[in-house]
Amino acid sequence: MNLRCEHLSKSFDGTRALADLSLTFPASGIVAIIGPNGAGKTTLINVLTGFLKPDAGRYFLDERELSCLPAHRIAQLGITRTFQDLRLISQVSVVENVLLARPNQKGERLLSALLRNGVAAEENQNHDEALRWLKFVGLDGVTNQLAGELSYGQQKLLTLACCLAAEAKILLLDEPVAGVHPNMVERILGLLRQLRETGKLVVFIEHDIASVRQVADLVIVMDEGKIIAQGKPSEVLERPEIIEAYVG
Amino acid sequence: MDYFIQCAVLAAIYGILAISMDLVAGQAGLLSIAHAGFFGIGAYASAFLTLHTGCDFAVGVIAGACIAVAVSFILSLPTLRLNDDYFVIGTFAFQMILFSVLNNWTSVTRGSLGIRGIPSPTIFGCKIDTSTEFLILACCCLLFVLFVVYRITSSPFGRVLHAIREDEVFAKAHGKNTLYFKVAIFAVSAAFAALAGSLFAHDITYIDPTSFTVMDSILILSMVIIGGAGSLWGPLVGAVVLITLPEALRFIGLSSAEAANVRQIIYGSLLIIMMMFRPRGLVGKYGFNK
Description:
The complex is a heterodimer. Chain A contains ten helices and ten strands. Chain A is an alpha/beta fold. The longest helix of chain A has 19 residues, at 119-137. In chain B, a hairpin with a 2-residue loop joins strand 2 and strand 3 (126-127). Classes of the chains: A alpha/beta, B mainly alpha. The A-B interface holds A 49, 51, 70-73, 75-76, 80-81, 83, 87-92, 96, 99-101, 103, 105-110, 112-114, 116, 119, 123, 162, 166 and B 148, 151-152, 155-160, 162-163, 166-167, 169-178, 181, 184, 188, 286, 290.
């Protein structure tokens, strides 16, 4: 699956967050988007997932145009995301959060919910699948705990489990290791490396250049809504102007 | 004895109403002020049909529910795209419009004169004559509503409703068409409110627009808040409390006029106390804003 955008622009009260941005993502691998605050990184993810409509420009998944689709349709087509401010259903259990992310559930149709035809069997399958992904991210010991009771790092893992349970091909992660303990950073980066082997495309926004160096196959540097550099980490992150501006 | 049975019938009818309100306000987090409107639609549809066509009570109930569902769709399209406060204002406006229609469409509703002489319900040829029989009918309807609500809220559909209540963005990010869920639950809720309206019309035998005002919507909402939002039993408990508590005033020697005012004070005080000390309500699972 190829995600690309053409001439995307988005402004907020006259401030340009995206300025005629065109970009083609690779079909798989790990892509890091870096840049200073206000560079337009989160706006790009918000636009690509349908949570913001661009002022101009279009974006596509393979040949299918996504620009006019609502957020839930884009998610159904296989693009899922996490948020900087963790978004979870804190008052239900960890496993229920993951169950919620499972796609195409019969029991989510009103009539099926009432008649329960085939819903129980599907629910059991989804439960097993949810436990599988919780085990993958290392949360199998807290499946019945309330999501709101988890540590911040565990909640980051839970958001990742939700994205994986959604069976998405493209994961857009907004600062997945920001604000977590160094041990948890290693754990999350390890998971991203494992995902590389599954053929998914993982795009993540990050300020921590060390993390980017460790896992990214491709680095995209943004500033003032434009891409100012892109390439392999070993090339891009060695450029003097990038070092001066973002690495220090 | 008839007096107590009548109190129980009213508690069952308002229990159905509160449960239907909880579906949208407690389960999905949509604060609707339009519920008395759907209650009125059911009451008028059932009263009109049984009086003018002599049809079965079940036909009146189904017709009332169908009209309420159709109206809920019309109301849903503009209002369910609105957020929070604007949704409340939208449903408030609908409630005001519906009250005006009931008050002014005199050829059907007889306006402020109301419809009197609504017959006792007949179900498949059997006439429900006594108050005990009516209580059994109301309780059967209540059990049916509880069963349907349990099926909905304990299913994946209910799980998405909870997600919408807590964080709609999270639900959308995982591919849930939240508008569909909101429209669907609003329709189910409207149908149940109409069912309660049908029962009310045949129980009281007289209806006029003053039984279906904004104040009645707020009373139904108070039942949900006091009993406990987002739970199966909470709204029913709230309805029983708010129906029976004011009745107790009759036994302490207050006149009807005094009792009406004291009742308003009790409702207001209860709401403030619950919000301050027990926002989850008497048996609820969540604070009303969650």
